[in-house]
Design a protein that fits this description.
Keywords: Signal. The structure is a single chain. The protein is an all-alpha fold and about 90 residues long. It has one domain. The protein is built from 4 helices and no strands.
Length: about 90
């Protein structure tokens, strides 16, 4: 019985360790990418067409970020950063 209890404890501990590591390796919060986009936008010299496209991508990213869809938000922010040359 003691071996069974010890085995069960070890299993639970190892499962918790693996789970916590998988959460730590997840994508960065979209708020961090949004800060990067806004900082790059403040210093970038864009023509009107590119500025409009960056604004549109930022708006889409904010919408997805507010919906807790960080992965899609980060995709929009990455596209905006690419246009901004970052």
């Amino acid at each position: 019985m003691k071996k069974y209890a010890l085995s069960l404890c070890l299993f639970v501990l190892s499962t918790n360790l693996v789970t916590s590591q998988s959460f730590a390796a997840g994508p960065a919060p979209c708020e961090d990418m949004l800060k990067d986009v806004r900082a790059a936008k403040a210093t970038a010299k864009l023509n009107e067409a590119d500025k409009a496209q960056v604004d549109q991508l930022e708006a889409k990213g904010v919408e997805r970020c507010n919906a807790d869809d960080d992965k899609r938000a980060d995709e929009f922010f990455a596209q905006a950063l690419k246009l901004l040359g970052k």
